[in-house]
Amino acid sequence: MKKETDSALEKVFKQIDASWEEEVDFLQKICQFPSTLGNEGPVQHFIADYLEKEVGLDVTKVIPDPEKLSSHPGYSEADWSYEDRPVVIGEYRPEGEKKGKSVIFQGHIDVVSPEPVSFWKHDPWGAEIVGNKMYGRGTADMKSGVAAMIFALKAVRDAGVKLSSDVIVKTVTEEECTGNGALAAIEAGFKADAALIPEPVLGQKGLTAQVGVIWVKVKVKGLGAHTERADKAVNSIMEGYKMINALLDYEKELNSRERHKDFADHPHPYNVNIGKIHSGDWPSSVPSECIVEARVGFPPGVDPQDVKDELKAYLLAAAEKDEWLKENPPEISFYGFHAEGFSIDPNQELFDILGEAHTAAVNEPLETGSFTATTDARFYNLYYDIPSTCYGPTGDGLHAPNEWVDLDSVKTVTKTYAAFLLKWCGYSN
């Protein structure tokens, strides 16, 4: 049996090598789509056509419906439209009796803004290759992973190996802000025995824990005026900075508490990021309103609503100490991420088989680790009893200028995923 497995594996690995230029070309094409929030439609339609015509999958498109999803504990509130922003699902079904276990490969195609573009040395939408690196927004996070998971399945099929269980390929929207794309696809019925997500968060390691995340918006009022009366006005920007300081004090409070076991050795696992500030529209006017938006991380096992309640009380208590804010308390609201953290046991079959596949690709044992941000793996682990982890390419510059992915690592992940398919799903020649 081992010789048969080695033979099939060798055949599939050779196919990955033979189709490598095609995989790189596919990655370049999808990275050249500027698929920021609200603009994911064109790349999704491109991928749907590719899955159907080139990989031979049955393709379904799902549009997230906030009304249907809103009662789910993993739903995150959004204030934008889902029109023509589908989640794409491709299905492989085996011929005859199913013998192995089914799996979901899931990657997100939404990317964050590349601004300011002037900071880039390479066109953020150019997917330029220099040496073994491809530069561009989304190359690492995470379109390279999308290419790897698609071409892993394609290589198995092109090598003439017939898998013995279902494989579901999903490209989802809004991993960067709500996760509602992943949630919509699961709620539409696309489930399996396990899920693998080729995020670059730990490179070629298995993810065993991640923090929870919420987004908060703090609206601060001032007393606007012409600059010549600035001494009698109240500048909302200056008042907003008092709320920023309160948010940073809350960050210190979070990190001073007893650490979750998976983050016990991390020096600063729970980050509060001041991500957006908006105020004013004229240099000679004292602004009447300042809006501060932030991202807040917190430990696994904590309800996001409890963090929202605590944070709101904390900010209002800080406002009570200020003469102006006491009489004009900030308006605090939440949107976007309402994401619970998770922690899972690596001593289970998913990690065993992923470890075997990783070793087949790189001849080294699989390592695991935790992540101080969030991924879509939370949905599967927390709400559907579907074990899920992340294992992806290696890169740098995520959410920053000059993002790049190591192309050698993309090939490694492609081979690991192909080996996983053979070992997890079973196959026949």
What would you say this structure looks like, in words?
With 429 residues, the chain is α+β, with helices and mostly antiparallel strands. The protein has 2 domains: 2-208 and 343-428, Zn peptidases (Aminopeptidase, 3-Layer(aba) Sandwich), CATH 3.40.630; 212-339, 2-Layer Sandwich (Alpha-Beta Plaits), CATH 3.30.70. It is 36% helix and 22% strand. It is built from 12 helices and 21 strands. A 6-stranded mixed sheet has the order 1-2-7-3-8-18, sandwiched between helices. Strands 4-5-20-19 form a 4-stranded antiparallel sheet. It has a 4-stranded antiparallel sheet with strand order 12-14-10-15, with helices on one face. Helix 1 (2-18) crosses helix 5 and helix 10 (349-362) packs across helix 12 (407-425). The longest helix is centred in the middle third of the chain and has 21 residues, at 236-256. The protein is elongated, with a radius of gyration of 23 Å. The protein starts with a helix and ends with a strand. The mean pLDDT is 96. Residues 209-322 form the Peptidase M20 dimerisation domain. Its EC number is 3.4.-.-. Its cofactor is Co(2+); Zn(2+). This is ArgE/DapE family deacylase. Belongs to the peptidase M20A family.
What's the rounded overall pLDDT mean?
A: 96
User: How many beta-strand segments?
Assistant: 21
Side by side, the strands of the main sheet go 1-2-7-3-8-18
Total number of distinct structural domains: 2
Looking at the structure, what is the overall shape? elongated
Helix content bin? 25-40%
Count of discrete alpha- or pi-helical segments spanning 4 or more residues:
12
Radius of gyration: 23 Å
Secondary structure category: alpha+beta
Assign the CATH class of the largest domain: Alpha Beta
What is the CATH H-level superfamily of the largest domain?
Zn peptidases
The first-to-last residue Cα distance is 13 Å
Supply the CATH architecture of the largest domain: 3-Layer(aba) Sandwich
The CATH topology of the largest domain turns out to be Aminopeptidase
Protein name: ArgE/DapE family deacylase
InterPro entries: ArgE/DapE (IPR010182), Bact_exopeptidase_dim_dom (IPR036264), Peptidase_M20 (IPR002933), Peptidase_M20_dimer (IPR011650), Peptidase_M20A (IPR050072), YodQ-like (IPR033687)
Family: Belongs to the peptidase M20A family.
EC number: 3.4.-.-
